[in-house]
Design brief:
The protein is built from no helices and eleven strands. With about 120 residues, it is mostly beta strands. It starts with a strand and ends with a strand.
């Protein structure tokens, strides 16, 4: 059985920083990619950071230069978020996809950016 659990969310002022963590239990074989998604109320879930099987890190323009995805090489993935904006407010989910196209999701952690 595989479980992903996010932590580190909270309330932060614009310009502040947060570091999200995603801890995995169980073993996922043949990982294709891992990343972070977010979903704001009334909006579609969007990818904000991804690490491919080759170790390449990619970000959309909306967070590029502000967010950094990383892994400890074992069971934890991180998302460092700097210079946060109100538009970053959302529930953030970690995701791991396997080569057989199976996706594993965390339950999400709330990030709220406001004054």
């Amino acid at each position: 059985q595989v479980q992903l659990v996010e932590s580190g969310g909270g309330l932060v002022q614009p310009g502040g920083s947060l570091r999200l963590s995603c801890a995995a239990s169980g073993i996922i074989f043949r990982i294709n990619a891992m990343g972070w998604y977010r979903q704001a109320p009334g909006k579609e879930r969007e990818l904000v950071a991804v690490i491919s099987s080759g170790g390449v890190r990619e970000y959309p323009d909306s967070v590029k230069g502000r967010f950094t995805i990383s892994s400890n090489g074992k069971n934890t993935m991180y998302l460092q978020m700097n210079s946060l904006k109100p538009e970053d407010t959302a529930v953030y989910y970690c995701n791991v996809s396997s080569e057989n196209n199976r996706n594993y999701w965390g339950q999400g952690t709330q990030v709220t950016v406001s004054s």
